[in-house]
Design brief:
Layout: E1 6-10, H1 15-26, E2 33-37, H2 47-52, E3 60-62, E4 68-69, H3 72-80, H4 93-122, H5 130-150, H6 152-157, H7 161-176, H8 187-196, H9 200-203
Helix pairs in contact: 1-3, 1-7, 4-5, 4-7
Pfam families: GST_C_2 (PF13410), GST_N_2 (PF13409)
Keywords: Transferase
InterPro entries: Glutathione-S-Trfase_C_sf (IPR036282), Glutathione_S-Trfase_N (IPR004045), GST_Omega/HSP26 (IPR050983), Thioredoxin-like_sf (IPR036249)
Length: 209
């Protein structure tokens, strides 16, 4: 087995990192990538990450030639061009735009959930902005409801960029925001997630307890 040719700067708690790791496993590329742990926050960037990504966010993927790709959407697109199986991001046509739109909706859930996490975990309670927190949670509820209403058949049809992104978003809600109880109003999505969460790629990338 050859040594990994790429390095992924990652934190196992990040849903954006998890998307990349799930795709690596689903496409059989996990042995090509070494994992470099880092824990950047909005106020304490990681020095190694900043060298290749001045914004300081993860995931960031350092390639064999030393160049660095970021953010998760770019990394996923790159990795999906590096394997010989069926693409997990449709290359063209209406399917491409629909699957990427579903993935974008999942990213929106993650964005809002991470922002709520930062606000509640890093800022003093007396500085929490309640209306802002409420609207971030409402974004999550609206997006999950849209997936419940209009996307179950599509998510079930393929475990690709859309399904990976939604699964990682829902997993992050379970991890950081169980109080939202997203399953209560979304039983079809809950059933779908119960099934896909048993895939080896999802089991192997569960966030730390």
């Amino acid at each position: 087995m050859s040594a990994p040719s790429m390095t992924l700067f990652h934190n196992p708690a990040s849903p954006f990192v998890r998307k990349v790791r799930v795709l690596l496993i689903e496409t059989g590329q996990q042995d090509r990538v070494a994992l470099q742990a880092c824990v950047p926050t909005p106020v304490t960037p990681d020095a190694q990450v900043v060298q290749g990504n001045p914004v300081g966010k993860i995931p960031a993927l350092r390639l064999a030639d030393g160049s660095v790709l970021h953010d998760s959407r770019v990394i996923l697109d790159y990795l999906d061009h590096q394997h010989v199986g069926n693409p997990l991001i449709p290359r063209d046509g209406s399917a491409r735009w629909r699957r990427l739109t579903l993935a974008s909706m999942a990213d929106g859930i993650m964005d809002a959930a991470v922002l709520v996490r930062y606000e509640t975990a890093l800022r003093p309670v007396e500085k929490h902005w309640a209306p802002w927190l409420d609207e971030q949670r409402n974004k999550i509820r609206r997006a999950v409801a849209e997936l419940e209403q209009d996307a179950i058949a599509e998510l079930t049809s393929h475990f690709d960029i859309a399904s990976i992104s939604v699964a990682c978003a829902l997993g992050y809600l379970d991890f950081r925001h169980p109080d939202l109880q997203w399953r209560t109003a979304n039983p079809k999505l809950a059933d779908w997630y119960a099934e896909v969460s048993l895939r080896p790629s999802m089991l192997d990338t569960q966030p730390p307890v």
